[in-house]
Structures are given as structure tokens and as C-alpha cells.
Design brief:
Blueprint: E1 9-20, E2 23-34, E3 38-42, H1 49-56, E4 64-69, E5 72-73, H2 79-86, E6 89-92, H3 104-115, H4 120-133, H5 149-160, E7 167-171, H6 179-196, E8 199-203, H7 207-213, E9 216-221, E10 224-229, H8 231-235, H9 240-247, H10 252-264
Parallel strand pairs: 3-8, 3-9, 6-7, 7-8
Antiparallel strand pairs: 1-2, 1-4, 4-5, 9-10
Helix pairs in contact: 3-4, 3-5, 4-5, 6-7
The structure holds adenosine-5'-triphosphate (ATP) and magnesium ion.
The site of adenosine-5'-triphosphate has 12 residues, from helix 1.
């Protein structure tokens, strides 16, 4: 501390308010993310995680509040200014968002073709390097449908890395993957962070991932920040909702429904808690 360059933060969020129509989805969210840090956003389904990412990458304008990227006020910028900033940002979407009719190479090359005037031969080399980086060297001509879920996530990462971003966002990078493939994605996230000193923002609800990758964690609940700190700090929190998340307990009304099921089956069926719940891979 104390020796940092003038602007220590890659991202600064101040009193962010986001609405869809009448529904307030983010309600006064503030945090700062240091350069090179891996910052994890935790929170239950529907609590505003993807919405927060959409605002941070500039796909949506907030109702109120401020987002600074590298010290520049992203929210107040013209569209042209935002476009320049967005070139320094990579985004891995929840569910990869690859174009199904395009080969992997064309998917990865797309941002380079759209935003640069590089020669095709240069783009070809850069595309190969990015696919190699994520362990998909040799898969240039494959279509997304010809790949496994884990490989598609990797391809999405290669595309997010196409423009050599300084900041990368991952929305649920390991959701819906088996634990071994998911751990492989976690390792890749760490590799990207350490090799390129990338500032990484990861939305997840996989606690195993959080343990592997997070420098700091923030927890969203109903559009507000419930807790923020290192994983150890959050694990020691006595906030009941933080505890519930860490201990993987269902909501109270969920338990009521389980009782109802038990009554229906005459108490003969035991309801299996937590670990049997289906994966939310949206
Ligand atoms: N495009 C949209 N238009 C209207 N409402 C939306 C839109 N996108 C999200 N919402 C609403 O905003 C709230 C937060 O959604 P969001 O997708 O940000 O949650 P999330 O935390 O990413 O959930 P999940 O873990 O299921 O991906 C939800 O109530 C959702 O219905
Ligand atoms: Mg989401």
C-alpha cells in the first residue's frame, strides 16, 4: 500500500441504481476493484448479478450512480467514448453466447474484425494463439455445437481475450459443468489473471470456485451489498443470510414445501436436502 500509481482501482462503482421499468434491481451498490484483483460477486438467483455485470461492461446504462473504469467516468461518456473503453474489457457471458453458425476461429476473430484494421493473416495468427491459450488449439474449424459444455466455455473465454483486455468479466463460468471440468475453468481463470495481470470479476454461486480464485468477495442480496471482504472474513460473518449461503440451507418457505411433500407421501419419503438440488445453469 502507498506505492501504487495514481489510480489504484480498475473499477469504481458508486451508489449504482438499476431499474427495469418499475422494478429496482440494484439499489445503491458501491465497491472498488483493484488492478489485477480477482473479485467475486456472490448471490442467489435473481438478486442482480448479471444485471450488475451488464452495467459494468456498458451493455446497459444505470438509472443513477457512477461507474469509473481506469478512473474515467464510464456512465457519463458519449457512445464513442464508451466504445473505446469497451475495447479494454472482455466478457464471458452466462451460457457462452457463441454464434452457432460460425466456426470457433470466426467466433474468436469477430471482435478483431469489428474493432481493428488488422490484416486477415494477422487475425488468423491471433485467433490461433487465443484458442491455444484456452487449450483449444486445433479446434479452429469446429462449430460450437460440436463441442462439450466445458469446451464452449473455453471458447467464450478465447473470444473475450481476443482484444487483449485489461479487465475480464465472467458470468457463471463453471455453472452446469462437472466438478473436474469446472476446476479446469477455475485454473484457467487463475492462469489468465496471473499471466496477464488481468483484473477479473467473476459472478458465481459455486463455493468451490470461490475458494480457488477469489481475492475478495461481495455478496448481493435483493440488489444491495450484504457483505464484502475476503472469503475468510465472509465465512466468519454472523449475518444470517451470509451464514445461510455458506451453509447451503434452503429458505424457510422451501422447508415448508418439503413438509408438505412429506405429508403427501405419508412421511415415508425422506426429502433430500441441498446436494440434490438441480444446477441453475441459466
Ligand atoms: N432484461 C430484463 N428485463 C426485465 N427484468 C429483468 C431483465 N433482466 C433481469 N431482470 C430481472 O432483474 C432481476 C435480477 O436479474 P439478474 O439476471 O440480474 O439476476 P442474477 O443474479 O444474475 O440471477 P441468476 O443467478 O439466476 O443468473 C430479476 O428479478 C429479473 O427478473
Ligand atoms: Mg445471472
Amino acid at each position: 500500500m502507498g506505492m501504487e500509481q495514481e489510480n489504484e482501482y480498475a473499477i469504481e462503482v458508486e451508489d449504482l441504481v438499476v431499474r427495469y421499468g418499475d422494478q429496482t434491481v440494484l439499489d445503491g451498490v458501491s465497491f472498488q476493484i483493484r488492478r489485477g484483483e480477482t473479485f467475486v460477486i456472490l448471490g442467489g438467483s435473481g438478486h442482480g448479478k448479471s444485471t450488475l455485470l451488464r452495467n459494468l461492461v456498458g451493455l446497459m446504462r444505470p438509472f443513477a450512480g457512477r461507474i469509473r473504469i481506469n478512473g474515467q467516468d464510464f456512465t457519463a461518456m458519449s457512445d464513442a467514448g464508451r466504445m473505446e473503453v469497451r475495447k479494454k474489457i472482455g466478457m464471458c457471458f452466462q451460457g457462452s453466447a457463441l454464434f452457432n453458425s460460425m466456426s470457433l476461429a470466426d467466433n474468436v476473430a469477430l471482435p478483431l474484425r469489428e474493432h481493428t484494421k488488422l490484416k486477415e493473416s494477422t487475425i488468423d495468427i491471433m485467433t490461433r494463439i487465443k484458442l491455444e491459450l484456452v487449450g483449444l488449439g486445433g479446434y479452429e474449424d469446429y462449430l460450437p455445437a460440436e463441442l462439450s459444455g466445458g469446451m464452449r466455455k473455453r471458447a467464450g473465454l478465447a473470444r473475450a481475450m481476443a482484444m487483449d483486455p485489461e479487465i475480464i468479466f465472467y458470468d457463471e463460468p463453471s455453472a452446469g459443468l462437472d466438478p473436474i471440468v469446472a476446476a479446469g475453468i477455475d485454473m484457467l481463470i487463475r492462469k489468465m489473471q496471473s499471466t496477464f495481470n488481468l483484473t477479473s470479476v467473476v459472478v458465481t454461486h459455486e463455493m468451490a470456485s470461490v475458494k480457488l480464485i477469489a481475492d475478495r468477495v461481495c455478496m448481493l442480496r435483493h440488489g444491495r451489498i450484504l457483505a464484502m471482504g475476503t472469503l475468510d472474513e465472509l465465512a466468519a460473518s454472523d449475518n444470517p443470510f451470509v451464514r445461510q449461503f455458506f451453509e447451503r440451507r434452503p429458505d424457510e418457505d422451501q422447508e415448508d414445501r418439503d413438509d408438505y411433500l412429506r405429508a403427501l407421501t405419508g412421511g415415508s419419503e425422506r426429502t433430500a436436502p441441498g446436494p440434490q438440488e438441480p444446477e441453475d445453469g441459466r
